[in-house]
Amino acid sequence: MNKPLLSIIVPCYNVASFLPRCIESLIKQTYVNVEILLIDDGSTDDTPILCDQYAKVDSRVKVIHQENHGSSASREIGLKHIEGDFVTFVDADDWVHPDMYSIMTQDLIESKADIAQCGVCDTYIHTYGNESQIEYKHRITDKITSDYQIYNKISGVLKILDDKEWQSYMWNKIYRKKLFDNIQFPKGRGLDEDLSVMHLIFHNASSSIYINSEFYYYLHREGSICSSIDKASLVKKTIDRNTARWERYQFTLSHEEYHEMLCKMQNIVVSVGLQSLRFIYKNQSFFDKQFISTLKNRLLSLSKIKLMPEFFSKMKKIEWFLFRYSFPLYYFAVKKLNIN
C-alpha cells in the first residue's frame, strides 16, 4: 500500500516537562514515513534544548526556533515548511497511541476522503509525593478499531457546527494539505482559535471519515492556555470566545446549505454573550469600551431569535428579556444583585 509522507506539526512553548512523552509517542509510531516539525515558539525553559536533542537522534525531526507569536503562528509556520501531502497537529503536552497514524492514514487513503478524525481520551496527572500517576477517562470506548464512517461535505460541516459528537480540535485529525490553501489561523487568539477555522477546513473537504477509537490522549493540566485563570487571561478569553462564536454564526448565515444549524449558532452567540456581559460589568475597568459596545450590538441584532431550552433556563430568559427591553434594570440586576 502507498505510504505517503505525513507531516506532524507540534507547536512548543515552555513544555519541557511534557515534551519528551509527546515526541517519544511520535517517533515510535508504527507508521514510520513521517516528518515531525517542532516549532519552538520562543520558549524560556529547556524546550529549545530538548527539541534540538531529538533532531540530532532522529532525522525525521526538524526544529524551527522563533520568537513567541502563539500557537496559531506556529501552525502557519509549520504549514509553510512541511513536505507531506498529509498533515496533522499535536499539542506538545499531549501524546498519541502508537497505531494512530498507521490506522488513520490507511483509512484516509482507502476512503479517498480529505479528513480523518478519531476519538479523544481525557487524561489527568495526579502527583503523590515523588510519584505521578496518569488517569485515563475514555469518552466513548477503550477499544481500538480501524472501522470508520464516511460523511459528505455538508454532513461533516453540520456535525462540526453542532459541536456534540465532533469537536473542533485541530489535533485528533489528519488532513490533506490542500485544505489549508486558503485558511488563515486567527492571530493573537489564546482561546478557541480552532473553533474559528475548523468549519472552514471541513467546508473545503469533499468528504471526511470518523474512526471510533480514542487514539489521542489529551492532557488536562494547570498552566495550559485553556486553564489559565488570571484576570488578564479571563479578559482575553472573554473576547476570543465571543469572536469565535460570532464568526461561526456569520459563516452559517452566509451558507444556505448549513441553515439548519442557524438557530443554534444564534443561541450560542446570545448565551455566551450574556454570560460574558455578566463578567464584563463586574470587571468593567479591564475591558475596552469598543468591545463592550460591539458585543451589545451583536446581541441586539439577534433580539428576535427563537430561544432553545438547552441554552436558556427560565432565569436566563428573564435576563435576555431585561437586556432587550429594560437595559438599566438589566445593568442594575447584573451589577448590584449578583445574578449568575
Automatic annotation (TrEMBL):
- State the superkingdom: Bacteria
- Would the keyword Transferase turn up in this protein's UniProt record? yes
- Pfam families listed in its UniProt record: Glycos_transf_2 (PF00535)
Q: Which InterPro entries match?
A: Glyco_trans_2-like, Nucleotide-diphossugar_trans
Do you know which SUPFAM superfamilies this protein is assigned to? Answer: Nucleotide-diphospho-sugar transferases (SSF53448)
Q: Name one GO molecular function term.
A: hexosyltransferase activity
Location of the Glycosyltransferase 2-like domain? 7-148
Q: Which UniProt keywords apply?
A: Glycosyltransferase, Transferase
Put simply, this protein is called Glycosyltransferase
Q: Which organism is it from?
A: Candidatus Caccoplasma intestinavium
